[in-house]
């Protein structure tokens, strides 16, 4: 996609601070730096989100995650954890529609990042959970 900002970064038409690059992916510092070391990993081929991946692309992109995460963590002894996020669709907070993975190093509970996971345990019986699982299983394409 010609106007995609991440495609332009991959083609070096827009400057970025690259931390890793190979034939399939490019990892670079996010300009917003939610926390120091905040890095994005993007496939070099344009895909909008996870729903456009095939198995080969997924293997190439997601196999790089431990490599990048370990390098970020090793780069600063103050990093005590890391959020690794892949948002898909506007409702899921995706703002650039070229698939990407965020690596957000965590330094303390008081840094400028948080996530909320609602607990709805009391709303789901084992039967309701099984019905949901069966519906998902029926749509697996393996």
From TrEMBL:
Positions of the HIT domain: 5-114
Active site residues per record: 100
Protein origin, superkingdom: Bacteria
Record's keyword annotation contains Hydrolase: yes
Any GO molecular function: hydrolase activity
One Pfam entry name: HIT
GO biological process: nucleotide metabolic process
InterPro entries in UniProt: HINT, Histidine_triad_CS, Histidine_triad_HIT, HIT-like, HIT-like_sf
UniProt motif (Histidine triad motif) ranges: 98-102
UniProt entry keywords in alphabetical sequence: Hydrolase
Record-given protein name: Diadenosine tetraphosphate (Ap4A) hydrolase
